[in-house]
């Protein structure tokens, strides 16, 4: 699976952004997907995960209630809708594909796209 993330940018606190991840490869629709982020000086963290069918999702406490992960297997796309953005959401965001149908174990994500920068100003 090859992944290409896009949609980052600069937004004011309280604003919204939608990140997109375009995937190539015939196995896309059978694997779980996740969005990670890494802020300067911090470890990369898994913030949202979605199962192969889209029927199961999971979020980190830091984004729960504000971010929504979704996927469109017909278009080979995964999305991250980010609302009520805060300055602490500033980070490089990555999409990744797991080797399983669904997982919240960061170590199970084997395929990575390039990151897209999200900057939230106060």
Supply Rg: 13 Å
**Low-confidence region ranges:** none
Query: Biggest β-sheet, characterized?
Result: 7 strands, mixed
Tally of DSSP β-strands: 11
How much helicity do the residues have? under 10%
Amino-to-carboxy terminus distance: 37 Å
Structural category: mainly beta
Number of helices: 0
Assess the beta-strand content as a share of residues: over 45%
> What does the overall shape look like?
globular
Return the string of H and E elements. Answer: EEEEEEEEEEE
Structural notes for this entry:
This protein is mostly beta strands and 122 residues long. Helix content is 0%, strand content 51%. It has strands at residues 2-6, 9-12, 17-24, 33-38, 45-50, 57-59, 67-72, 77-82, 91-98, 109-112, 116-121. The strands form two sheets. Strands 2, 4, 5, 6, 9, 10 and 11 form a seven-stranded mixed beta sheet that branches. The chain has a four-stranded antiparallel beta sheet with strand order 1-3-8-7, with no helix packed on it. Strand 4 (33-38) and strand 5 (45-50) form a beta hairpin. The termini are far apart.
């Amino acid at each position: 699976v090859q992944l290409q993330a896009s949609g980052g940018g600069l937004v004011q606190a309280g604003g919204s952004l939608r990140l997109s991840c375009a995937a190539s490869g015939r196995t896309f629709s059978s694997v779980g997907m996740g969005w990670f982020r890494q802020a300067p000086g911090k470890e990369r963290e898994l913030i949202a995960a979605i199962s192969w069918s889209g029927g199961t999702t999971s979020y980190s406490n830091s984004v729960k209630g504000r971010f929504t992960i979704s996927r469109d297997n017909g278009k080979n796309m995964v999305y991250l809708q980010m609302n009520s953005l805060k300055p602490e959401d500033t980070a490089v965001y990555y999409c990744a594909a797991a080797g399983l149908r669904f997982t919240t174990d960061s170590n199970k994500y084997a395929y990575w796209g390039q990151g897209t920068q999200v900057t939230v100003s106060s």
